[in-house]
Amino acid sequence: MLAVAIITSLTAGAPLAADLAIVIDDVGYNKSRGLRAINLPGDMTIAVLPHAPHTTSLVAHAVAGGKDVIIHQPMEPHPGPEVREEPGTLKLNMSTDEFDSLVIDSLDTVPERSGLSNHTGSLLTQAQQPMRRLMAQLRKRNLYFLDSRTSAGTVAVDVAREMGVPALKRDVFLDHYRTIEKIDAAFNKALRVARRKGFAILVGHPYPVSLDFLEERLLDLPPDIRLVSAADLARRRVTRPLVTHRGVLAQPVGPGSPHILLGR
């Protein structure tokens, strides 16, 4: 009884921490904005476009700053007037060899990566066989997958988990609308999601308004919100050791608790 009383006394009034993972997508084209994203305070996941001109130097800065780095792999979207194809885009009509070659090239371009997410891909992430080919490559390297959820019909997470690949999915887009008021509302929504289920994944972009907002807001987080990397969240759902540029993340002993730049 005394032990229970002591524990109750120590924990009374102490808020339980909810984890918030912030992922900054589309890093690699603008060096100054990429550096601002990397220099945001706290744990952060930097999603780099593998063939963008400043990716290599920005990855070096991110690793030096202790940030989680993932590949933001271009994937085929549904056709549309605003769609612009990125170099190395994975497509439905590719042969197995061509598809695998592009995935391996992206993975080799950024050896510091701990995982991979989809850039656009509203069409490709709905297809079982391409997702199986992708997850097979990630499984070989003990990498995790983060579904940006550019389509409500995505099967990527289900396929990843079926194949033993640690998988996460985006909860909220920070900057679907690029105004301070809308960004603030999206950020607060992510906090509500984190409090409700224990964690949330918030995806933003290196837009000036987004960076301005995060540089200020992250200095004044609520006491019950803890910033974590996406790799940390993936580690809690992994069934075998997960490799990041910081080393091997140990296997846990128990279970863990719209708009995309350049099109969908």
Describe this structure in words.
The chain is of the alpha/beta class and 264 residues long. It has a single domain, classed as TIM Barrel (Alpha-Beta Barrel). Helices cover 36% and strands 20% of the residues. It contains nine helices and eleven strands. Strands 1, 2, 3, 4, 5, 6, 7, 8 and 9 form a nine-stranded parallel sheet that branches. A two-stranded antiparallel ribbon has the order 10-11. Strand 2, helix 3 and strand 3 form a beta-alpha-beta unit. Helix 2 runs parallel beside helix 3 and helix 4 packs across helix 5. The longest helix has 18 residues. It is globular and about 50 Å long.
Number of domains: 1
Helix content: 25-40%
Number of strands: 11
* General shape: globular
List the helices and strands and how they pair.
Elements: H1 2-11, E1 18-27, H2 31-38, E2 45-48, H3 55-64, E3 68-75, H4 96-109, E4 115-120, H5 128-140, E5 144-147, H6 156-162, E6 167-169, E7 172-173, H7 180-197, E8 199-204, H8 208-217, E9 225-228, H9 230-235, E10 242-244, E11 247-249
Parallel strand pairs: 1-2, 1-8, 1-9, 2-3, 3-4, 4-5, 5-6, 7-8
Antiparallel strand pairs: 10-11
